């Protein structure tokens, strides 16, 4: 047998090309557009395969002139890949991420590119700009507001059009909206939410507002309110809200949060002493009056809302641990408790009697998992956890993310201090982990610990 025939016989078959075109297109949709375009040189079969994949464009991986050519019909043939991209200028655009438009002179080009993408089936849009004075911020063009295909929108340092009232059918099919450093008056926000009838997730970060903000949405399921300067947040008419994630304001004003009606609320946190007041229905937790005793004026309807909460997260600051008994007594069906422990002071003495005098809480019949981040063996930590160990009938795991080094001696001392031998649940296990592993355990609240976006805005 000749060498040429032998090489053909031993040549491995092209199994990848043998896959169905639908599957190959799905694979190509997961890689950057320039890499997908390069596959066109593999064979005649691959030449046009990538052109059937909707574009996912990110200006951090595409040169500015190439990105412009994706939306305009200029003649250009500097690179083979870029020429292929130019030929595909009418292809659908599934996702678009832009960050190179920080100066007002670039805004008209931005308007054209965003409007063109909105007409080509755009589903995901991310616009990130450096924080500028309001008069220099990029304003969303009206064609984008009417985009029916858009499902995800993330804005940083942008603002909405001055046109008021907002046009009808704004973002009619939008499911997730993220606003970072966006200035929006309450009236404009209400008009926006009333138009977004499919909205499920609303995320605020460093939100700027001088007056109260009111949120109403029949479709909303998750609300994240992170580092807002608004003095008061009112949540009402949210019949499908399941998750409310809160973080205190960055100003000296203690924000007031009122949840007037959320019958399906299951996840709530972080509750902190920095809130001026937290109202759930007619139940008021007012740290400025007496944090140990919540004012409770609950009708059966409002009690149902408190009973729906299954996951609770609290920040355990100085003088705030005395509030925890009152909090736990207000959520009788609690299953998961996450505690973020602030650094304690050596001069602070916790009132250990609050747990000795506390009768068994109804939530202890349901509480299954407890996680404390920042555990160091302080008296306040130990007294709370010991109470849960001794009284928690349904507990099966307590995870302690330790700020101290974990040694066999440290673990032995803590197990003895927590009275693990007297545990009410025979299935309970005590897990000690390094604090650096916290992201995998406080998973629901990672958005409050992720500083990547803040770093990007500062760079």
Automatic annotation (TrEMBL):
Transmembrane segments: none
SUPFAM superfamilies in the record: F-box domain (SSF81383), RNI-like (SSF52047)
Residue span, F-box domain: 13-49
Native organism: Rhynchospora pubera
PROSITE patterns per UniProt: FBOX (PS50181)
Entries under CDD domains matching the protein: F-box_AtFBL13-like (cd22160)
InterPro entries noted in UniProt: F-box-like_dom_sf, F-box_AtFBL13-like, F-box_dom, F-box_dom-containing, LRR_dom_sf, LRR_FXL15/At3g58940/PEG3-like
Name the UniProt record assigns to this protein: F-box/RNI-like/FBD-like domains-containing protein
């Amino acid at each position: 047998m000749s060498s040429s025939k032998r090489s053909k016989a031993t040549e491995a078959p092209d199994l990848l090309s043998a896959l169905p075109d639908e599957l190959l297109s799905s694979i190509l949709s997961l890689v950057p557009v320039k890499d997908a375009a390069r596959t066109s040189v593999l064979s005649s079969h691959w030449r046009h395969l990538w052109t059937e994949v909707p574009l996912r464009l990110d200006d951090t991986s595409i040169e500015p002139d190439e990105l412009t050519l994706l939306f305009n019909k200029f003649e250009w043939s500097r690179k083979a890949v870029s020429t292929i991209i130019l030929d595909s200028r009418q292809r659908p655009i599934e996702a678009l991420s832009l960050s190179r438009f920080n100066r007002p002179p670039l805004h008209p080009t931005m308007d054209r590119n965003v409007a063109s993408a909105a007409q080509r089936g755009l589903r995901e849009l991310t616009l990130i700009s450096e924080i500028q004075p309001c008069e220099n911020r990029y304003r969303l063009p009206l064609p984008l507001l009417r985009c029916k295909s858009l499902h995800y929108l993330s804005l940083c340092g942008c603002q909405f059009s001055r046109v008021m009232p907002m046009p009808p059918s704004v973002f009619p099919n939008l499911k997730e909206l993220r606003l970072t450093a966006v200035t929006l008056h309450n009236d404009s926000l209400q008009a926006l939410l009333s138009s977004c009838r499919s909205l499920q997730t609303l995320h605020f970060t460093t939100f700027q507002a001088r007056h109260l903000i009111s949120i109403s949405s029949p479709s909303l399921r998750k609300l994240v309110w992170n580092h807002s300067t608004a003095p008061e947040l009112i949540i009402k008419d949210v019949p499908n809200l399941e998750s409310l994630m809160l973080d205190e304001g960055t100003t000296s004003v203690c924000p007031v949060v009122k949840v007037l009606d959320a019958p399906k609320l299951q996840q709530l946190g972080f509750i902190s002493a920095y809130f001026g007041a937290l109202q759930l229905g007619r139940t008021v937790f007012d740290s400025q009056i007496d944090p140990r005793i919540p004012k409770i004026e609950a009708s059966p309807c409002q009690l149902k809302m408190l009973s729906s909460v299954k996951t609770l997260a609290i920040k355990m600051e100085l003088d705030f641990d005395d509030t925890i008994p009152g909090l736990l007594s207000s959520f009788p069906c609690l299953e998961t408790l996450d505690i973020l422990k602030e650094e304690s002071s050596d001069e602070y003495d916790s009132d250990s009697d609050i747990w000795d005098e506390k009768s068994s809480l109804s939530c202890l019949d349901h509480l299954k998992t407890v996680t404390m981040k920042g555990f160091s063996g302080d008296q306040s930590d130990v007294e709370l956890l010991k109470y849960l160990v001794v009284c928690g009938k349904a507990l099966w795991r307590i995870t302690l993310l330790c700020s101290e080094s974990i040694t066999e001696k440290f673990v032995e001392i803590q197990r003895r201090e927590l009275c693990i031998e007297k545990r009410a649940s025979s299935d309970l296990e005590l897990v000690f982990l390094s604090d650096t592993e916290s992201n995998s355990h406080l998973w629901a609240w990672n958005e409050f610990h992720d500083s990547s976006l803040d770093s990007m805005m500062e760079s």
